[in-house]
């Protein structure tokens, strides 16, 4: 391969990205060297198996990917702000909207949610760690290396450009000869392996690591949402793994699973993708339903209304999520009976979701509501998500879908569901649990400014797109003529996108300002919380709980406070076992990246070297007999501020 084929050239924005990557790397190396932080980085972060630190790294990765995916979205809106624009040519535009979808769903929403679950779930169930700490670190580094490999495609080799769904035959070598779609197949495979391991880990953690007395029906709703999500992950992600493996075989090794020229079945890819893809929507929605349940209950100062109904509705959503995928094919020539069945199942899934909406409303009824930033995000979710849900029912009508399908109406619906659901929920969770993670709250004034700018911008951006879709504007359109009547609505939509970007910018300012200015003596329980995570120190100590709690009822910490049972007694303390840090997950992640890079470029020696390195890491782990270490009682007393009771 020639050098000019290896590096992407020819566009000013690509050169700007090259410069930004180079300057960022140089800046990071300079700061770590100047402040002598290399050893700190290795011992505290790169080798950690602490679920809380891994959660922080997931969230930081997600915020970076939100910035990257947001820039892609703004570039698309700039291209469409006026007719006949040429900010992005056809090829670059295809790459940008492909990256936007993949990054926002798989590399922003997923890690943000997994980050929150890593930090909070073990604390909510009264556990000292997850079931498999080492596997948890492997999960993060495989996700991270997959994300980095995908992002590298824009400056090295060429970006994938067949859409985030990467439909065949367009995604095959027949119509996409470059290596861009190899990046899609390999990087998603690597990142997806990490997500699957996370699902298994948290399924076992919630089943086996709960505190004494915490039955399933005493679990916090966020933990319930993660438990159901983990089950969906375990069943859905192997389908994606198989589909991507077959795609890789087609593109790299010349097989014909999906390739038309040799008798392959392009429609099989679409089925496999959406058998994973539609449960994936609920993988990123159900956890934020848990977040909203915790925030609304805490800030209404009431227990959650209809707890059992909420649990049953989540189970119903999980079951129905596997029976709706064909609604993506209503216009592809199915029989009326097939379309009718999947139309009914798609409409049915609105029922358990509606149950949740009413439960949250009844929870707030006669509550003493505190309007913090986290609560504002939760309140804004309800009307905006209802718009997404109602338009979803419209799309579920197979006959009407012939009008809506592939139009901007669908784009608007999709974003009303995923932004008002997932993104609002991630922001609510960030503001709600931030003091537990970092030991100080975020600035509420800046938080509310960011909230209002973002929410107004969101509606200004996406509400006009319903009308654009009804007026005939199709998605993936790179430009349009001046006489179609779309000019004004597209300009308004672009203004809304910039407002959302401004809202995100204020959020970043808030993160930096609060880290610099806000006091570090935040109370462990700033919101008068109801669940066990608020019993721990802020930020949470390595061992989570000095004494494992005994749970007697739901909202355990709320009742512990009422009974004055929150004090830790010195005589109850015992040495606490914790796992040792390990560099193997990080090194294994590097080998995943090397092997993936070799496979993308079809350099088999490099791919084999990466695979050998992965197996070497597995072998090293097999002969690792480190039993971990114990935190001594004296150290626990010092951390907890306990005196007396010396043994």
TrEMBL record:
The keyword Oxidoreductase applies. It catalyses: 2 a quinol + O2 = 2 a quinone + 2 H2O. It is an enzyme of class 1 (oxidoreductase). GO terms for molecular function: copper ion binding; cytochrome-c oxidase activity; heme binding; oxidoreductase activity, acting on diphenols and related substances as donors, oxygen as acceptor. The chain crosses the membrane at residues 12-35, 56-76, 96-121, 133-156, 183-204, 224-249, 269-292, 304-325, 340-362, 374-398, 410-434, 446-468, 488-513, 583-601, 607-623. Catalyzes quinol oxidation with the concomitant reduction of oxygen to water. Major component for energy conversion during vegetative growth. PANTHER family: CYTOCHROME BO(3) UBIQUINOL OXIDASE SUBUNIT 1 (PTHR10422:SF35), CYTOCHROME C OXIDASE SUBUNIT 1 (PTHR10422). This is Quinol oxidase subunit 1. It comes from Priestia aryabhattai (Bacillus aryabhattai).
